[in-house]
Amino acid sequence: MRERQTVQLVRRARDFESFVAGAAGRLLHAATLLTAEPPDDNPRARRLLTAALARTYASWDRLHGEDPYTYARQQLAYRFLMMSWRLREGRGGALGMLSPQERLVLVLRVHEGVAEEQTAALLGLPMERVRTLCFRAMSLVLAGKSGALRLTSTETVRGVERVRP
């Protein structure tokens, strides 16, 4: 019986290691975008990814046919939302001017390609709210690149013009 359990544990560890080898780079990039840290100096993103992967490993046996990448991304989003109150200050860069919720929606929708319905379900928000957050975030990022946002209804928040829905 012990040999069987040992074989299962070794197989589980090997499967998880191969998953991490294939997915960790993309998940780290998503975590770096969420924390708005520079790619070469991203300790918060690394801690966020480590916590998400630890939770994924703990739930590995219960995934039964589910996509482990989807689960890991979901854990990454949950962990980010739990720690986002500590990340309120702007961090610089194009995503640094966004609120944590706007950043999360933008990364999920644009970088990860998650559907609007799935993003809304993951965050527990109505689809209209997800759509609005994504629009605001894209407007802010594009305004930061072009220097000025030419829309009729705007408000200034933290020194940045923000589109009102």
Compose a concise summary of this entry.
The chain is mainly alpha-helical and 165 residues long. The protein is 67% helix and 5% strand. This is RNA polymerase subunit sigma-70.
Report on this structure.
This protein is mainly α. The protein has 2 domains: 1-87; 89-165, Winged helix-like DNA-binding domain superfamily/Winged helix DNA-binding domain (Arc Repressor Mutant, subunit A, Orthogonal Bundle), CATH 1.10.10. It has 7 helices and 2 strands; from the N terminus they run αααααααββ. A hairpin with a 2-residue loop joins β1 (154-157) and β2. The longest helix has 34 residues, at 2-35. Mean pLDDT is 84; it is low at 148-160.
Write the layout of secondary structure elements.
Elements: H1 2-35, H2 43-58, H3 68-83, H4 93-96, H5 100-111, H6 116-123, H7 127-146, E1 154-157, E2 160-163
Antiparallel strand pairs: 1-2
Helix pairs in contact: 1-2, 1-3, 1-5, 2-3, 5-7, 6-7
What is the share of helical residues? Answer: 55-70%
Kindly state the number of beta strands. 2
**Biggest pleated-sheet summary:** 2 strands, antiparallel
Structural category: mainly alpha
Strand order of the largest sheet: 1-2
Shape: elongated
- Rounded to an integer in angstroms, the radius of gyration calculated over CA atoms is 18 Å
Total number of distinct structural domains = 2
Order of helices and strands: HHHHHHHEE
Poorly predicted regions are 148-160
Mean pLDDT: 84
Secondary structure tally, helices: 7
Give the N-to-C terminal Cα separation: 62 Å
